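Data card: per-record layout.
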Amino acid sequence: INALISQHYLGCVKKAFVLEVLYDEYCSFALKRRVLLKIFPDLDKGEFVTNLGRLNTIRNYFAHCGQIMGDMATGERKVPDPKKPEKGIDFPTLHAEFMEIEKTVIATLFERYKSIGGKLLE
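The structure for this 122-residue chain is written out next.
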């Protein structure tokens, strides 16, 4: 997404722009997603945008949910799912889902990057 934004607005991927602006902790994923969808409004419907949102949700589970909680009565230990606290988060399954979805999202992003003149240097 960072490469697409830089390529679109600056005509190439500028290291300083990516590092100083897009990598800044206040330049959120939500903002980058919004800009991406302004560049390519046709992506703002269907499977791509759904998959992009799901990747972000899974990323947030890994980044923000990690506190193991135990039940003193049963001895059960789990990381509760914030949407269903009675259930534990299955991190291996989420990781597998992320890796599968990411393939299609990356393919679409790279295709769009090339369509606006972006080049992959080897």
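Known properties of this structure: The two ends are 19 Å apart (CA to CA). Helices lie at 2-10, 15-22, 29-39, 47-64, 91-115.

See the next section for split statistics.
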